[in-house]
Amino acid sequence: MARITLDNLAHSYKPDPKGEEDWALKQLDHVWADGEAYALLGASGCGKSTLLNIISGLLQPSRGRILFDDKDVTHAATAERNIAQVFQFPVVYDTMSVRDNLAFPLRNRGASAGYVAERVQTIAAMIGMEAELDRKARGLTADAKQKISLGRGMVREDVNALLFDEPLTVIDPHMKWELRTQLKALHRDFGHTMIYVTHDQTEALTFADKVVVMHDGRVVQIGTPEELFERPAHTFVGYFIGSPGMNLLPANVTGATAVTNGAEIALDRAYDGLSGKVEIGVRPEFVRLSDSEGLPVRIRRVEDVGRHKIVRAEFFGHDINIVAGEDEEIGPDKTRVTFDAAHVNVYADDWRVEGRAA
Predict the structure, then answer these.
(1) Residue 339 confidence (pLDDT)
(2) 4, 158, 190, 207: least surrounded by Cβ within 10 Å?
(3) Does the pLDDT of residue 13 top 90, yes or no?
(4) Cis status of the peptide bond prior to 244, with omega within 30 of 0
């Protein structure tokens, strides 16, 4: 297990990058704690796989250093970093049995036959393949092969880090839940440093201790699922985390009051001297329909999703989504919305402003 330090790290696929847009990975300075589980979350092309490949040694960064504990591994080969990596698509030895596939990393390092047999049996149970141990990998389904690939990544107990690059893409939905649960159990039992790349917020939020949200080659926030939900540090985090994502409205903010299209909104904190593009953000869970107070809206439709309703409304051309209770009556008199002041965030040029006590 290792503490991973990203020191002044950046990468460009161009030989002579000029402007910021030429950098696939913009400057990163972060320390990831030994033994924690991290998820790299973001849309396709945001830089998360580039960062994972730099950590694994498959890619040399254009600038900066990678340290495992206090050892500089920036130019070390992948084999020298003592990591295990599981890729998006399964990588297995088709001519070997499932048992031999799982045993290969241990045998390759000279582990005793007894330890290999015990460890393979444990991992086979974890991935639900005990009955297939003596089958050849050739002919197995794609999701079965990916389970072997996951198992082979998890079979070693002495790795510095376990790296997962969207490993559940080819796994059926039911098995995804099981494998995520098993990965968390593995982390709890053995305390490996784990880094899990995904574009799926559910996978990230259910797997990780800390979620690293990336956007346009930059880490915009590292936090617990609760922090990402309650206090998105960037408007992208508010949009990307949650379903529906955060409501954003342009506003003029003075002190503890925001004004948007002539309507006043009370804030829980006060703000001074904001400039640039100023917006307020509030999650649909903290928006309430009203018949007498708040912002005037036009309800476009109501979606019943079982446990609650999602109300799609419009305020002077801006979308506002509301999460309403399953039993809540949404009649024609509900033409206004109010916001919970304690959960209204203020953003300047897309970054959250902390404000001061009002």
Answers:
(1) 97
(2) 158
(3) yes
(4) yes
